[in-house]
Design goal:
elongated, Alpha-Beta Plaits, alpha+beta, five-stranded mixed beta sheet, 16 helices
Length: about 475
């Protein structure tokens, strides 16, 4: 297919379709503009699907089948009316027309599933809000009035009601399609399909209006034909194979200004219906439909706000965790360790329990980095943190103090017991590496800075003594 086949298709066919509004119905010219363009559109779609074989072929076949059923309905209707002179309603033509709706909705459903990959609960809820809001005026101004008309029989009444009901279903799916995350730069075929469904719905609504208030809408036929033409042009576009790509992941939970405006407008439809009904006939307001629609809208909006608040709380917890964890090793960072030490010292002042602070430093870490590379050094830090954490008690705090240096806070144990715990971390050090450590027990009066300073002095004494050992500040002081 030529790269610009879809554009040429629209440029050649759309003017012919629009001219149908000024042609007398039942004539050969009207048939060519309406039925002829419909048949050609279906043939082009079938041929294109056979030749192009797009990745999302099943979706395109359903959309093509929707157009085929609708065109078959047009052909059957014209044959019955203009050749056989049978003006029956409902007729076989209505069977084809009604079949086109669920098939088209199925194709759009596959498109939605492809663009969301099942990860867009917020978009689904937004579509439900918009759909419920639109269903209320559809019921009040279209479906209910049609049900109250004089019908030839049950079949006439059911078919007459089926059209607006299917239109509401089409509105639901189109709203769901528009609210899918997808790419920021929407592919042209996607926009064509959305416009095609909007064109179809406007023509259907106009047709329903004629059955209620009478009159003639000359743009009905061009509107339906434009649906066929736009669907065909979307398939012929070079980007048709990428139409169901989900695009980059975006935070669909955020209420952007356009989305918030759409939801606000949808929520205002219920009171707008009430106002219009009151102006039309203050004594016969369809209060049951308005009450049900308003209640559902309110609950959906509350559910939407609940999802948004859950997302905000979840993100806040994630940010709080990230602010207190070291990005490389996953253990608490220096800030979190300082907070933990301050809390333990405050608790020890009240309870009198001992607190021991230790600083651990991997031996010859720079040489390891130079020999094996920074990626290996990062892996050593992660493995060391995991191995040491597994040997500590649950209440003990292990944190990355900085670089290859780690801090540990051990509360509730005497200095000798804390020394034994830190000493058993030595065989847990991975890749045959060693560490030096200095420990200091809190004297009950000194500040956190002074306590850490004594542990740091013990660490440097351990390094000066040959590394791969743990020194307790009190023992070093006694020995000195």
């Amino acid at each position: 297919m030529p790269r610009r086949a879809g554009i040429w298709w629209l440029l050649l066919s759309v003017p012919v379709a629009l001219s149908n509004a000024w042609l007398p119905g039942g004539g050969l010219a009207s048939w060519i503009c309406y039925d002829g363009l419909g048949v050609v559109s279906c043939v082009v779609m079938v041929v294109a699907l056979g030749r192009l074989r797009p990745p999302s072929a099943r979706m395109w076949w359903l959309l093509a089948a929707g157009s085929i059923f609708s065109v078959l309905g047009d052909l059957v209707y014209d044959v019955l009316l203009n050749i056989l002179h049978v003006d029956a309603y409902p007729s076989v033509a209505d069977v084809f027309y009604l079949l086109s709706y669920p098939v088209t909705v199925g194709g759009l459903g596959l498109l939605v599933r492809g663009r969301t990959r099942g990860r867009d609960r917020v978009g689904l809820l937004d579509a439900a809000i918009v759909s419920t809001a639109l269903a209320l005026p559809a019921w009040t101004f279209v479906i209910r009035p049609i049900s109250e008309l004089d019908h030839a029989g049950l079949g006439d009444q059911l078919v007459s009601l089926a059209y607006p009901v299917f239109d509401v279903l089409l509105v639901v799916m189109t709203a769901r399609l528009v609210t899918t995350p997808g790419s920021r730069r929407l592919p042209v075929p996607f926009l064509m399909l959305v416009i095609a469904q909007v064109t179809r719905m406007l023509s259907d609504i106009s047709f329903s209006a004629t059955s209620i208030v009478g009159g003639d809408f000359p743009w009905l036929n061009p509107g339906w034909v434009l649906t066929y033409l736009l669907t065909t042009a979307a398939l012929l576009h070079p980007a048709a194979g990428r139409i169901d790509e989900p695009g980059p992941q975006r935070d669909a939970g955020v209420l952007s200004t356009p989305r918030l405006t759409l939801l606000a407008a949808a929520s205002l439809l219920a009171p707008a219906v009430l106002v219009v009904e009151g102006l039309r006939n203050a004594h016969k307001i369809d209060w049951v439909a308005v009450a049900i629609g308003s209640t559902i809208l309110f609950l959906l909006v509350v559910a939407r706000m609940k999802l948004l608040l859950n997302r905000v709380h979840r993100q806040a917890r994630q940010l709080e965790q990230l602010a207190h964890l070291d990005g490389l090793t996953g253990v608490p960072n220096r800030r979190s360790w300082d907070d933990a030490l301050t809390r333990e010292l405050a608790r020890a002042r009240r309870s009198g329990e001992p607190v021991v602070v230790g600083l651990l430093d991997l031996d010859f870490f720079k040489k390891f980095n130079d020999a094996y590379g920074h990626q290996a050094g990062d892996l050593l830090l992660k493995e060391a943190a995991a191995g040491w954490r597994a040997q500590l008690r649950d209440p003990d705090v292990l944190a990355r103090y900085g670089g290859e240096e780690f801090g540990v806070v051990i509360a509730g144990l005497a200095a000798a017991d804390a020394l034994a715990i830190v000493s058993r971390l030595r065989p847990a050090t991975p890749r045959g590496q060693t560490f030096s450590a200095g420990l200091a027990a809190w004297d009950g009066h000194e500040s956190a800075e002074e306590l850490v300073h004594r542990a740091d002095q013990a660490l440097y004494l351990a390094k000066d003594a040959g590394r791969d050992r743990v020194f307790l500040a009190e023992d070093v002081t006694l020995a000195g």
